[in-house]
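JOB MANIFEST
job_type = single_chain_structure
chain_count = 1
residues = 330
[input]
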Amino acid sequence: MAVDPALLDWLLDSDPALRWQVERDLAGAPPEAWQESRGRVAKEGFGARLLALQDPDGQWAGGAYFPAGYQFATDEQGQPWTATTWSLNALREWGLDAGILAGTAELLDANSRWEYDNLPYWGGEVDCCINAYTLANGAWLGADVSGLARWFVEHRLPDGGWNCDWVEGSSRSSFHSTINSLKGLLYYEQAGLADADLVAARRAGEEYLLERRLLYRKSTGEQVAHWASRFVYPFRWFYSVLNATDYFRSAALFDRAEPDRTMPDPRLADAIGVVRDARGPDGRWIQERRHPGDVWFEVDVPAGEASKWLTFYGTRVLEWWDGARGQAAS
């Protein structure tokens, strides 16, 4: 299905970090066009600004997950989003060529330690979400994170997913922890690094969310919480059905060579409906809130305004879903 030209023009008038993805996934631009835009991420806009803030020791803000000297704040103040892991996440998700950060993996191995027990950076720690980011960032930058990949197999819970509170004794998976774990595992697998056990762990984690139709408690059938249907960019570590359906789109496209995984799972339908219902009459999605906490600079609009990032993700998800369902019906 073709994207409305006016909406497409609005999305294309954006930072290179977003523009190249719009060109590739929505505009149908040839590879040489979107690759040229992607190459600009390192030279201008958000990507160039964030690269310039890297410390000589390879870190950002002097810390692994939190800035150096950070004192834990209240929920209202939020956490800062400026330290190394969040900065790497952003650059990777914006499509920065890993070669631009040549030597960073080695610098972090030598200089960065987790705030939890002073553990070495590429070994991860005990938090599933943090470890998932590290797994993806390590695969991107060429660090050896094979031990961390095995950690996800060993720490998957009996119901199929993951929970960052496992270390406190939790035996039930979390929507937040599971979607972040899945995104890290998929990135690692896309890099050609996963073995059969890790693929099986990813599929089990997907099944955990699909059994709940991405929205509901399995025990009661009630919606898990208001945050599941609240859309915010950047996603950070928070679950939403937009974050989750975009993951399932990526996974489906990666898995489509397998005959039984060529079509979207019908259990996604309720979540897709929530994404569709959030779209305004002009085809845009609204930033519903902002995750509180310090940032290096803003990359999206304030709450209440139309978000190009959310509109890109929402449009991409619906184009995938409607296109695949249309092909099945024809």
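[summary]
The chain has a mean pLDDT of 94.
The domain at 44-211 is CATH 1.50.10.20 (Glycosyltransferase).
exit_status = 0
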